[in-house]
C-alpha cells in the first residue's frame, strides 16, 4: 500500500513523491474519539454584564457607523491564543488548591445541612423499611401514657399562664401544675413498682454462675435525649450535577474547578453560583427535560461533528438555517415557541455534557463553531430575544464548558457587535474567540481541526463514503501561479482510490498513470481541466493498476492566491 505523508508547501513545479509503504491509519484524536462523538454545546465562562445586552439591542441605531468605518473580513480581529488549564488538582497553584479545599468544606457543610434543596430526613426514617399498611400501631404502656398525660397537663397549664394578663394567674397556674405533677408522679411510681414486681416474678431462674457473672464488654444503655439524638441523626444530602455526585470522587473536583474559574477563584462567589445552578436545575426540571422528544426540525441548526486536534468534541451552530421563513416562524413566532426552542437547546447541551470525561485530565470542554453565513442578524427581534435568554442561562449555569469559540463567515455587522461587546469581556474570555471572514474560514478551521474531521460544507473531507474520519488527510499549500504534482508509487497490482480537493478550486486538475516499464505507455486517468468553485467540492477517483508504476496528480494554480490542497488515498489488493 501507499502511505500518506504530510508534506510541507513546496516551491512551484516541485514534485511530491509519496513512498510506497503500507497505508498507515491515523490514530484516534483522543481516547474519547473511540466513542460516538458527544453532541454538545455552548457555554460562556465569564458572565457578561447586563449592560452588554442593552448595548447589543441598541446596535441597530449604530450599524451605519460601522459601515462607514469600512470594516471587511481582512480586518477581522484574531485571537485564539487561549491555552486550556489543567483539571488536575496537583497542577494548581497553591492559592488555587487552597480555594478548592475551602469550597469543598462549604459544599460538605451544605450537604450536611441539606442546603441544596429538599428536606432533612432522620437516619432512622431513611433506613426504615416500608411496612405493611395493614399493620396497626401498638398500644403504649400505661406508664408511658400517664407520663404523657402529666406532660400535656403541665404544658396546658403553663400555656394558660403565659397568656394571662396578671401575675396572680401565672402563680396560680404554676402551683396547680405542680400539684397535678406530684399526684401523677405518685401514680406513675406505683405503676412502675407493680410492673417491676410482676416482671421479677416471671423471670426464669438463672444458674448461680451465670447470675454471679457480669459481661465485661457490656455497652451502656443509651437513654433519654441521647437515644433520640442517635435515632434522629440526619444523613448528608446527595446531590449530583451532570451525572457527577458532589464530593464523591475526583470528578467532583473537576466540576468545582469550573465554578471557581468562572468566579476567578473567589470561593464564596463560586459557592453561591453552584447553589444557584443546582436550584435552577431543579426548578427547570433538567432530569425530566433530557427525556423529552422535541422532534428533529432543528437538527441542522445545531449539531455535533468530529473532534478537534486536541480531542474536544466540536459543535456547529448554523444560524443561516433561520433564513427559512417557515422554520423561523415555527421556532420564534410566539413566546411559547421561543420557550420550547430554549428547552430544546438546553436539552441538547445537557446530553452533550453528560458524554464528556470529567476525570482529572479528561476532555470536559467543547469547541464551538459559529457559522454566521446568511445569518438573520440582530434585525430579527424574536431571534435576538431567544438568543439573549439562552446566553444568560448558559453563562449562569454552565461555566467553563467552552474550549474555544470560532466564528466563521463573519459578516460586517458582527464586527460592530464585537466592538461593542469586547470591552465587557475579560481577557481570558476574549482569548478563546477566533474570527474569520468567508475567504479565511476553512483556513482557520484547519488550524484547530484536522481536515478529515471538518465537514465538506466547511472545506474539509468529512462525509459519508468510502473514507472515514480516521483516514488521514494530507494538506499542502499550492503557491500562486505554480504547478504542483503528487505521485503515488505502486509496486504490485492493486486498486488505488483517492480523494482530492482544493479549497476554493479555480485550478486545473489532472491525473495519469506512468508505468515503470520502458515499453509501456502513460495512461490518462483524468484529462487536465479547470475546476470551478461550484463544480463539485470533492473529486473521488480510482484506478486499477496491473503493473508497477506511479499515479501522478497534477494541480495547476493560475491565480494570484495561495490554495490549500487536500488529498488522501487507500489501496486494495487486486484479488479483493
Task: Report on this structure.
Pfam families: CRAL_TRIO, CRAL_TRIO_N, GOLD_PATL1_C. It is found in: Cytoplasm; Membrane. Its main location: cytoplasm. This is Patellin-3. The structure is a single chain. Among the domains are: 83 residues, Helicase, Ruva Protein, domain 3; 163 residues, CRAL-TRIO lipid binding domain (Phosphatidylinositol Transfer Protein Sec14p); 100 residues, GOLD domain (Jelly Rolls). The longest helix has 36 residues. The strands form 4 sheets. A 5-stranded mixed β-sheet has the order 1-10-15-12-13, with no helix packed on it. It is of the alpha/beta class and 576 residues long. The protein is elongated, with a radius of gyration of 37 Å. Helices cover 36% and strands 18% of the residues. A hairpin with a 2-residue loop joins strand 2 and strand 3. It is built from 17 helices and 16 strands.
